[in-house]
Write a structure and sequence with these properties.
Blueprint: H1 7-11, E1 16-25, E2 31-38, E3 40-41, H2 43-54, E4 63-67, E5 83-88, E6 90-94, E7 102-109, E8 118-127, E9 135-147, E10 153-162
Antiparallel strand pairs: 1-2, 1-10, 3-9, 4-5, 4-8, 6-7, 7-10, 8-9
Length: 163
């Protein structure tokens, strides 16, 4: 006898909810701009998370990328439009609804990362590799005008809640 679960049982309650915090600081550490936005979880990211659950995939999403693309994010995105820098972030978990249900990845970009001049940063993504790789989430936003040479920095904090 074969017993199958109803489709609703497979869909009941499991979601990935992404939030992106952007903070621009000047050379003295004063906040020039701060935004908190919801982001898109990509189809490729969902597939990778499914693989993380059963060990088919073992590479975590810990690389934060910034860019200057302006095309709105979609679930089918696999890369930033115009990436300018990517780096490994610090990782942790926090509690949103139940203990440790939210993954946190944070990275700060500055001239120390080889960034120079000025950029109007308008997009960010979270990846599982230091180049290429799979993108879990992406967000475009109004320009954050950053003057790296003047000492500006950009801190990005991704939070992805499993609910």
């Amino acid at each position: 006898m074969v017993v199958s679960l109803p489709k609703a049982g497979l869909q009941a309650g499991f979601k990935l909810l992404g939030e992106l915090a952007l903070t621009v600081r000047d050379a003295e550490g004063r906040v020039k701009d701060r935004r908190v936005l919801r982001n898109v979880i990509t189809n490729a990211g969902k597939a990778q998370v499914a693989g993380l659950i059963n060990g088919v995939v073992t590479t975590p999403f810990k690389y934060v990328a910034i860019g200057t693309g302006t095309t709105s994010e979609t679930a089918s995105d696999t890369a930033l439009e115009y990436e300018i820098k990517r780096k490994a972030g610090s990782t942790s978990r926090t509690t949103t609804s139940v203990t440790n249900d939210t993954a946190v990845v944070e990275a700060t970009f500055s001239s120390a990362d080889g960034l120079s001049g000025s950029h109007a940063v308008t997009e960010a993504g979270l990846f599982d590799a230091d180049s290429g790789g799979n993108m879990l989430c992406r967000k475009t936003f109004g320009a954050l005008n950053i003057n790296w040479d003047a000492g500006d920095s950009l801190t990005i904090t991704w939070k992805v809640q499993v609910s």
